């Protein structure tokens, strides 16, 4: 009897220590629910960190541009064409990389602890003043053997150029016109101004207060030219890297709207008003159709585009709800997609083309323009 009772206790102990299938499924369901609740919080924390890193990057680049002004008295130009036509926008948009040399990114490399890379690029370029950045046939001025081909330099990945939220910035742009040539990516663009490149006209028009941002082609602003105040004028905006290797947007060694600058991203014309605009014409760039992604899908991904030239590109980010920008005083700011883009701000001192009837700007326009006469309060954005 004693043995039977002992056996019975063992059996009861065994039966109580085991999980039934139902109990196991309940535990799994609870774990799944907890993971479902925690995952958004984890993703949100990760994105907060990424956004902060992105803001730090754009601040660093803007401060490098300011250091550049200490030596050169002007901000770096958005790009330097291979020729000096009277109309500085002639043929610099189609395609930009076949008729331009250094851009603002290359010019500030020494201020980003990339002195060696800067010297390599200029050793190659300075002996071929009319050769474009897309070529790979440079002979070093120093007389050394070509220790670094331009294609290898252009393809380098530089951490401070990349926002960690952008999943496409590790895929290089592939120049289909040159076999085997790739270009490294970038997530920050220079502010050229309100109109498309070809609409800017000659330098006299770009310098009009109704159009100009801070960095133009070859010519650019001095800190004192920014009459609206450097703390209220966008110097750099976030941009996104191309959707695939055929998309030139976000390319650090390439000048022009889309690759390394924003241009035509204001209310004049209406196609690209405000950050992260989804209008199909808000980015008018070369090779848009070559991406192989249809228009609806490009819009869904937040990267709409059309066109065959690099003439218009807006501020874009992979963050939710807005973009990071850097003002001309080196400060970084968050601009919401909900910023006022209705024409409601009367310009104080804007010059327009003859016959142009535009008489109002938006808050977003005023942040882009460097001398429209309107000082915008931080509470407006």
Write a structural description.
This protein is an alpha+beta fold and 381 residues long. It has one domain. The chain is 28% helix and 9% strand. The chain has 9 helices and 9 strands. It has a 5-stranded mixed β-sheet. A hairpin with a 4-residue loop joins strand 8 and strand 9. The N terminus is likely disordered.
Secondary structure elements and their pairing?
Blueprint: H1 2-17, H2 21-72, E1 79-81, E2 100-103, H3 104-107, H4 115-125, H5 150-154, E3 173-174, E4 182-183, E5 188-193, H6 197-200, H7 203-206, E6 234-238, E7 261-263, H8 295-300, E8 322-327, E9 332-336, H9 363-368
Parallel strand pairs: 5-7
Antiparallel strand pairs: 1-2, 3-4, 5-6, 6-8, 8-9
